[in-house]
Amino acid sequence: MLTDAHIDIIKSTIPLLENAGSALTNHFYKRMFSQNPELQDIFNMSNQHTGRQQVALFEAIAAYAKNIDNLAALTTAVERIAQKHTSFNIQAKHYEIVGMHLIETLRELATEAFTPDVEEAWTQAYLFLAQIFISRESELYKLRSESFGGWAGTRKFIVKEKNVESELVTSFVFAPVDQQPVIDYVPGQYLGVEVMPTGSKYKEIRQYSLSTAANGKTYRISVKREVNGVPGVVSNYLHDGLNVGDEVNLYAPAGDFYFVDRKAPVVLLSAGVGVTPMQSILETLAADKYSEQVHYLHACENSKQHSFAQRVQQLTTENPWQQYTWYRSEESDSEQIGHGVMDFSTRDLPLSNGDFYLCGPIPFMQFAKQQLLTLGVSEDRVHYEVFGPHAAL
């Protein structure tokens, strides 16, 4: 049981955590994967190599320590993580393993400071938080398995279609092998995809935004081939090694970023492959004949990398909606395409009462959010999705 004394001790160790920094999480992951290598079937090892996962974990641990006496401040973060965990099929047994390695990491890195009282406090704090996640994730698993078309764990799907959307993005349409209905989702959510890439020692699980409206029969994701920095192990496998007729294992749709109908104007803002959840929202608004204003703003490198261009043009022509695109490295004669970076001051947007949905590279979203706040948009009307480990804007 977590007591006031435990809370006081946890808060007193915050400087210790901050001084340890990423060394703490680097040691933790190295320890865990060496002793429990089977967990490499669950964790995204690409994020381990780039360091993004270590940073995200350290920030999460520090945030928990700082807010342990005000857990309401962590509600949003808990929901986001719980949703992501369900697309990895995280179970209670995994929390036992993680907890053991976390406590042992603290013992090994802070030998003198890690007194019996500190160990007791952190053990109780971890168990308390783990139970919050276990309970919420159990609710999500139950809800999805009992919903019409739902399931638990993985379900086999076949690649029904594979369509090139642009120079770097390809869409995959999955149909269930059992030919039964599939659970609906809220536009903006993602799908967990489990594959075994050629030459890989472990299974790889990735989350990809669903890119069209729910139909109860199939799912569609649209995947960018990652060519810069660390090559995308799974994205390149999907592009080069997954073909029509092949089977994959999918986890039920999840995610805490999704469209909420507030009967208000909607502004969809994306860059690059961040277009995928926005396309799902746009398709859903069109299917529902959404009556409020809709603005669809997108930025990408050039016309060759402009995904869904014709489809967006069709939807915004059929409906009284506005769309505009910026090409960074190409000029266009079209009145709907600008050159350079996205500039909201040139568009007549519903700044006072609109809901703004953002998705794209983190620098783009930081830039876009700051523009919106400067223009007077309330922060609670700015909603965003980060691909991979979460990062604050």
UniProtKB/TrEMBL annotation:
What are its cofactors? heme b; [2Fe-2S] cluster
Q: Which UniProt keywords apply?
A: Detoxification, Heme, Iron, Metal-binding, NAD, NADP, Oxidoreductase, Oxygen transport, Transport
**Recorded catalytic activity of this chain's protein:** 2 nitric oxide + NADPH + 2 O2 = 2 nitrate + NADP(+) + H(+); 2 nitric oxide + NADH + 2 O2 = 2 nitrate + NAD(+) + H(+)
Q: What is its EC number?
A: 1.14.12.17
In terms of Pfam families, this protein maps to: FAD_binding_6 (PF00970), Globin (PF00042), NAD_binding_1 (PF00175)
Going by the record, the broad EC class of this enzyme is oxidoreductase
Q: Name one GO molecular function term.
A: nitric oxide dioxygenase NAD(P)H activity
Q: Cite the InterPro entries for this sequence.
A: Cbr1-like_FAD-bd_dom, FAD-bd_FR_type, FNR_nucleotide-bd, Globin, Globin-like_sf, Globin/Proto, OxRdtase_FAD/NAD-bd, Riboflavin_synthase-like_b-brl
Q: Domain (Globin): give its ranges.
A: 1-138
Question: Start and end of every FAD-binding FR-type domain?
Answer: 152-260
* Role of this protein: Is involved in NO detoxification in an aerobic process, termed nitric oxide dioxygenase (NOD) reaction that utilizes O(2) and NAD(P)H to convert NO to nitrate, which protects the bacterium from various noxious nitrogen compounds. Therefore, plays a central role in the inducible response to nitrosative stress.
Question: What's this protein's family per the entry?
Answer: In the C-terminal section; belongs to the flavoprotein pyridine nucleotide cytochrome reductase family. Belongs to the globin family.
Q: What is this protein called?
A: nitric oxide dioxygenase
Q: Give the organism, scientific name.
A: Thalassotalea nanhaiensis
Q: What gene is behind this protein?
A: hmpA
